[in-house]
Amino acid sequence: MATLGSIPENQSPPKHIQHHPTSLRNWYKKINWLNTTLVIIIPLLGLYLTRTTPLTRPTLIWSVVYYFLTAFGITGGYHRLWSHRCYSARLPFRMLLAFTGAGAIQGSIRWWSANHRAHHRWTDTMKDPYSVMRGLLFSHIGWLVLNSDPKIKGRTDVSDLDSDAVVVWQHKNYGKCLLFAAWVFPMIVAGLGWGDWWGGLVYAGIMRACFVQQATFCVNSLAHWIGEQPFDDRRSPRDHMLTALVTMGEGYHNFHHEFPSDYRNAITWYQYDPTKWLIYLFSLPPFFQTHSLKTFRSNEIEKGRLQQQQKALDKKRQTLDWGLPLSQLPVIDWDDFKARCTDDGEMLVAVAGVIHDMSLFVSEHPGGKMLIKSAIGKDATGVFNGGVYEHSNAAHNLLSTMRVGVLRGGQEVEVWKKQKTEAMKGNWMQQVTRVEKLVEGAVAA
Ligand SMILES: [Zn+2]
Ligand SMILES: [Zn+2]
Fold first, then answer.
1. Nearest bound ligand to the CA of residue 262
2. What is the pLDDT, as a whole number, of residue 93?
3. What are phi and psi of 201, to 5 degrees?
4. How far is the CA of 92 from the centre of ligand 2 (A)?
5. Which ligand is nearest the CA of 130, by number?
6. Could you tell me the residue ranges of all domains in the chain?
7. Domain 326-424 CATH class label
8. What is residue 55's predicted lDDT score, i.e. its pLDDT?
9. Which of 82, 177, 251, 434 could form an SS bridge with 102, CB 3.0 to 4.6 Å?
10. Residue 5 pLDDT more than 70?
11. CB burial readout 169-189, b (16+ within 10 A) else e
């Protein structure tokens, strides 16, 4: 018998609204109206009010200052302090970040961090709350304005944040915090400061919050869309100066996803990462507000960079013709090789135990036709490796594309054995025809 509230056995659980086809009767149920009001409707209202609200110079300056303060609440506080625990901060600094972060209208620290940890853990999958794989617009703002099925989002542990009284208090009182930090406080400063109450609300409150929101959303969209991937290209995060410029340094996102607990996003001094600079500045006397700043060893960072460079090189290598691998070439007896090179026969030349077909190249040989013709049907290892002329790197590369066979026993000569084993293993840098130390008698063609 079904208990109260359980689903009868012959009935499947009701699907979340997002799994139903959109129609005129249900479209509004798919919208998260609270978020839509906070990230679209109020900003549009603010934009409308700017038409009739003059922007005074002090209000403009205050709006810019408060923009950076609230943006830092997100980048230095919500993101690097609480989501990733990149450093520790003393109580006054945490209170400041919780206040300014609330003023950015992006949810409570607890809610924001839970989503962000899921984003890192399940990047580019359906469990990533703002996966760019669901479209640029979805990762930017769509995930906020649409109701999402809570069963889809990846779960993360944020219990560590419960030991921070500032986080717990802000979460419980988030509505009041938002109202005061986002709109009332900037209005009071402009009102009491220079009598511009209305301008303070419209510009330093509503429009400033809109800009901070859009800048932060760019980290979820643009930083997964444009830029380079110097550390790993298996997933979408990218490094780009443009996104760093609008997000107080959060645009070095490829680095950040690889080394999320590093308090830096940009690792070189000339890259723009004011969030990093501020965290560092507040660790110094006389502030002493931040401490235990975490960084990854440069050895680890360089390993990642090198592996990515190697990957790019390997990719490029695969587009080039290096000749057939030795292991795929037919083995030809010396007598057969000689027999195939009669007067009207093939133009085969053996170099370092490998047989090459020179017929298409003979007339293009920079050293002239005669030298090649004189080597046909013979072992030209010596002449090719300095007996007549020390051939260039490019010549060895070109020769490898003409491989047609391997001489039986041709690889038994000891000095060649080692390097050919390397070539057999697929070491593409190894030029099998290059013989560093000639065996006596090998010079004679
Ligand atoms: Zn990301
Ligand atoms: Zn992050």
1. 2
2. 98
3. -70, -50
4. 23
5. 1
6. 17-307, 326-424
7. alpha beta
8. 98
9. 177
10. no
11. ebbeebeebbebbbbbbbbeb
